[in-house]
Write a structure and sequence with these properties.
The protein is α/β, with parallel strands linked by helices. It has helices at 2-10, 17-30, 41-55, 72-80, 99-102, 126-134, 187-197, 218-228, 231-248, 277-286, 314-322, 334-345; strands at residues 34-38, 63-67, 84-88, 110-116, 138-142, 150-151, 154-155, 162-166, 180-184, 201-203, 206-207, 270-273, 323-326.
Length: 349
């Protein structure tokens, strides 16, 4: 509330000190040289791709490898940038892109791999990085659900060439509304992204690129600056909730994803899988427990990508047909987690 009052009293609502301070603080937290605050996570993804096109690293029709089991925004950013998504299946046990299948998907037009840390689960591997390095590919991260997630002490958002972040209110680090950011160590890309996001202008009323309007508000930046100080603590609580689920859910009708070693996972969601998913959801609702499906229709079966509708990705389709997200956040209490587990274990067909 103090941060909100500070912004309201200042009378400065865009491109001010709050945004500049958040950019510096978030870059330091992630471990990158640059952070560019933008309007939302989809814009962050698009601006990375458009930025690389302006630099001349990407060109129309280039291919970007992407997990088949992602949220639609990841793929929209690619197609909206006049690039071609190449879908690769995930690993059923871990739900992340199968690095062993990336190499088989390469063609002479492949220019990037966009990994997605879905559900807050680490989707990076040394094998993935080695493939990108050996084939001179960009390694891009969709960090919309992975604020604070780590690999060997390095945070997601710093593992590849550039990363997109979403601060939608329901995320581990959430703003008042839509907000996003790009993190990178590439100074040239950061400058181009900042210019593109401001109508293509790097100086007031001077437009050097054909850009868009994608800017974070001072209010969102101020709120995020406060919440960032508590992010690691909040994620630790999420891990406690997840730990209780792992230790106590014993219903054989459910499959839980593999528990990631060293707790890199920040548990944006806690997905479980059940062949009778809809009945399980109804059972939990009857006990006053809200759940969500992330996501009911995979991207290749969506109407907007009708050219893919006949394609089959069995692992992805199994995930989307069985996934149900249990209550997960830093404010879920011990009593509530016990109620969830009791209801889950009491589900019978």
């Amino acid at each position: 509330m103090a941060a909100v009052d500070r912004v309201m009293s200042s009378g400065w609502f865009l491109q001010g000190e709050e945004t500049r301070s958040f950019e510096a603080e978030y870059a330091r937290y992630v471990g990158t040289s640059h952070c560019v605050a933008v309007a939302n996570g989809l814009d962050a993804l698009r601006l990375i791709l458009l930025g690389y096109k302006e630099i001349g690293v990407l060109h129309d029709g280039d291919e970007v490898i992407v997990p088949a089991n992602t949220y639609i925004a990841t793929i929209l950013a690619i197609t909206e940038s006049n690039l071609k998504p190449v879908l690769v299946e995930p690993i059923w046990e871990s739900l992340v892109i199968d690095s062993s299948k990336i190499e088989a998907a390469l063609t002479p037009r492949t220019r990037a791999v966009m990994t997605v840390h879905l559900y807050g689960r680490l989707a990076y591997s040394e094998q993935m990085a080695e493939i990108c390095s050996r084939n001179n590919l960009l390694l891009l991260e969709d960090c919309a659900q992975s604020h604070g997630c780590q690999w060997q002490g390095r945070k997601t958002g710093s593992l590849g060439n550039a990363a997109a972040h979403s601060f939608y209110p329901g995320k581990n680090l959430g703003a008042f509304g839509d907000a996003g950011a790009v993190t990178t160590d590439d100074e040239q890309l950061a400058d181009v992204v900042r210019t593109l996001a401001n109508y293509g202008s790097n100086k007031k009323y001077v437009f050097i690129l054909e850009g868009i309007n994608s800017r974070m508000s001072e209010m969102d930046a101020a709120v995020l600056r406060v919440k960032l100080r508590y992010l690691d603590e909040d994620n630790a609580r999420r891990r406690q909730v997840a730990g209780y689920y792992y230790a106590n859910i014993s219903n054989p009708q459910l499959t839980l994803p593999a528990r990631i070693s060293k707790e890199e996972n920040v548990y944006h969601q806690f997905p479980v899988f059940c062949e009778r998913r809809d009945e399980l959801q109804a059972h939990l609702a009857s006990h006053g427990i809200q759940t969500m499906i992330h996501y009911p229709i995979p991207p290749h079966k969506q109407e907007c990508y009708s050219q893919w509708n006949s394609l089959t990705y069995p692992v992805t389709e199994r995930i989307h047909a069985q996934e149900l997200s249990l209550p997960m956040s830093q404010v879920v209490t011990e009593v509530e987690t016990e109620e969830v587990v009791k209801a889950v274990n009491g589900f019978r067909i």
